[in-house]
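SEQUENCE-TO-STRUCTURE ENTRY
===========================
What this section holds: a protein sequence and its matching fold, both as plain text.
Question of interest: how does this chain fold, as expressed in backbone structure tokens?
***
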Amino acid sequence: MEKSKGTLEAEISKALTQWEKNYLGRGSISVKTDILRDMVIVTLNRILTPAEYALCRDKDGMLSIKKTRNSLVESGLEDLKQILLSLTGQEVISFHTDISTQTGERVMVFKLSGDLEKQLS
């Protein structure tokens, strides 16, 4: 049976939450995944610790947190690519991420080798 778009989005959210817990030591409060054309867009909410929020009050602290958090995610990129490949059957051809030090929200964009949304419809 073919998976629905919503089912696959939920599976990706669950897998990335588990990856965060295993690899980074803690997970976000909530995760939302959207499949749009050849992209998987994942929004992870409230990922910063109270100490990181405190550091983000000044520009140097904010830049330091962004750099450290992005480096941590980038260091696990091969695992993330493998998770997406196993769930979607498509290779990740590029990856983009950023974190808001205001809201503690991270956005991840995985660009895939094909149009996953069309494949699912």
In short: The mean pLDDT is 93.
